[in-house]
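Researcher: Final request for today, and then I'll write up notes for the group meeting. The sequence and the SMILES for flavin mononucleotide follow.
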Amino acid sequence: MMTDHPQICLAPLRGLTGAIFRNTYVDYFDGIDWAVGPFLTTFGPGRIKASQVTEMLPENNAKMPVVPQILSKTADHFIALAKILIDLGYDTINWNLGCPFPRVAQKMRGSGLLPHPERVDAFLEKVLGVLPGHISVKARLGRQRPDEIFELLSVFNRFPIKELIIHPRTGVQMYTGQPDLNTFEKCLALCRCTVIYNGDINSRADFEKLRQRFPTVHTWMIGRGAVSNPFLPGHIKGYPLPADSIERFRRFHDTLFARYAQVRSGPAHLVDSMKGYWGYFARSFAQGEMLLKQVHKTQHPDQYRPLVARFFDQEAHGNHFSN
Ligand SMILES: Cc1cc2nc3c(=O)[nH]c(=O)nc-3n(C[C@H](O)[C@H](O)[C@H](O)COP(=O)(O)O)c2cc1C
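Model: Predicted protein-flavin mononucleotide complex:
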């Protein structure tokens, strides 16, 4: 049976969907129910990076519910950081089993753990034995092969995992090729816990197709599509696009910029943060690629701000964000 009110979860995108973005999103848009935060790393028992804790402080996350995510292969290190987060008030911690980057995977973290179900088993056994909270998992189908997931599912099924978020690609695929929907379908049938779908939802049509095919999926995680077009989650839920969509987006952008300006250590660092966003924002504008090239050449807010302001002026009457 098709679920009536799909939930939309914002995907963790490191460098993009941190607390500043999430809070600013809520100030201007609707449609996202909750988020998984970009991964936090462990350094050893008792060693925590202060900026990671600041990012997750409840007062910095009052607007959008968030599940913190940890990237770690060592149960003791995971437990140490997870306990700090649970003490801050979080009841669920997400374990990253998907990060595809070779530098991470070679150290058997993220998707590097997927070919080692026995290690995943030992990790969960240890963590779930002592953690006073829930664990959810975000995984790809495998490191090298999509069928690696099946042995992992037998492991996951042995534990009270709250949710399994599946991005149906392998680690070595990175973001190339298509999500493997046939294997995702098999996972849905085999997995005992709630499964969340994640991958390549870039339009309402993408969402509708997936929803038709997987009617039992209740929660849909969206990353790049929601950063490129922040109206997309609302559009999927049937909220009308406001008449002043470009103006709304412009105010969102300006607030995002102003909030980063308060925390970035220098002008180049600030502009670099905004360049990351334009890699995605640009997709919503016919002239976006051209602007992106120009944005990449800027090194200082004094160059960046007038360039982007001129762009928004020119786009003021265009038709945007309607996918
Ligand atoms: C720039 C970038 C950063 C990412 N950071 C994380 C991360 O911190 N944790 C994680 O689990 N996945 C991370 N991902 C993967 C996304 O959460 C998501 O699984 C992937 O982008 C596919 O979903 P989408 O097509 O909706 O974007 C990242 C992806 C990108 C492109």
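Model: The beta strands are 7-10, 34-36, 40-41, 66-67, 69-71, 92-97, 134-142, 163-170, 194-198, 219-222. The first helix runs from residue 19 to 28.
Researcher: Thanks, that's everything.
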